Amino acid sequence: MTEERLLALQEVSFAYEGEGGQKETVLNRINLDIHKGAFVSVLGHNGSGKSTLAKLMNALLLPKEGTVLVTGIDTRDGELIWEVRRHVGMVFQNPDNQIVGATVEDDVAFGLENMGTDPAEMRTRIRESLQAVGMEAHLYDQPHRLSGGQKQRVAIAGIMAMRPSVLILDEATAMLDPMGRREVLNLARRLNREEGITVVNITHFPEEAVFSDRVIVMRAGQVEWDGTAAEVFADPDRLQALGLDVPFAVRVRHALAAEGVSLPFILHQEELVEHLCKLLLKR
Ligand SMILES: Nc1ncnc2c1ncn2[C@@H]1O[C@H](COP(=O)(O)OP(=O)(O)O)[C@@H](O)[C@H]1O
Ligand SMILES: [Mg+2]
Q1: How far, in Å, from the CA of 76 to the mean position of ligand 1?
Q2: 1: pLDDT strictly greater than 60
Q3: pLDDT for position 3
């Protein structure tokens, strides 16, 4: 695979301005490259700067220092700001705050209308993107009547209709029930695999991160750790010291090791079950 750089942050710092004009640095000299086709998870304690990082990636915020490049476009280039936002779609935590249309169709049409898409093309794209998220049967439904997971899938359809390069989920599953969480995560994984959409999944559920190509751990405005899921989750003590949860399978393996039962390194619950069954049958 050619490693095309889709998002690049170079020495990026950011500070929000306080009421008295004082500034507190919340991101401090971040360097990050995200390649096309990657599925990246971002973990980190509340307040570590994850949402600020996400907003810098689609020009909702601009860096105070350093440079953010989206497909090579500098996000400070005011003339291309809509191009940046079309490339990098973002879904937020609260599904109810993201509904803009009276029907699912209107909701998905919103971004396309703003882009001045022609009506026939718009209908095609709405249908395609609702199919991509499995919501085509809800075209004329009122969004507020849908479940949380369905609302987030409609929000993702609105983004997909714009033919983005990157989908950022900023704790998009945090307010959902387990089924809704699964729906949204599975959808993101499928869009990544089948449509080649680059995904940045900001989450505090470690189980969501075990499927990633790469896990970035933020701490106090800096990248504390950047590695594969296997690398990051191989060190549960370090994760816990950072105030982060550890995936269930990793926790169980760790606890078993303390009891003298050793299993090979595992990330997924299915693997855990498989290894435990083998172990029990051998006895
Ligand atoms: N709009 C804002 N104005 C001032 N401070 C903010 C604002 N948004 C976030 N912050 C502060 O910036 C820091 C990082 O916040 P955020 O990026 O939201 O972190 P996370 O998403 O990891 O919880 C926190 O200390 C937070 O209080
Ligand atoms: Mg946040």
Answers
A1: 21
A2: no
A3: 59
How many A from CA of 105 to the centre of ligand 2?
Answer: 29
Q: Which two tokens stand for residue 74?
A: 């500098």
Domain total in the chain: 1
**Is 15 a member of any domain?**
no
Cα–Cα distances in angstroms (integers) from residue 256 to residues 231, 233, 249, 275, in the given order: 20, 16, 11, 12
| 126 located within any domain | yes
Rg, C-alpha atoms of the chain:
20
**CATH classification at residue 214:** 3.40.50.300
Q: Is position 10 within any domain? A: no
As a whole number, mean pLDDT of residues 159-164 equals 95
3-state secondary structure of 50: helix
Residue 119 lies in a domain: yes
Say which ligand is closest to the CA of 220.
1
The string of pLDDT tens digits covering residues 247-265 is 889 889 989 999 999 888 8
44: its two tokens:
């980190």
Task: Tell me which residue range forms the domain holding 83.
Answer: 37-64+75-229
Ligand 1 pocket, CB under 6 A: 16, 26, 44, 46-52
Residue ID of nearest Cα to ligand 1 atom 4: 16
pLDDT in tens, 168-198: 999 999 999 999 999 999 999 999 999 999 9
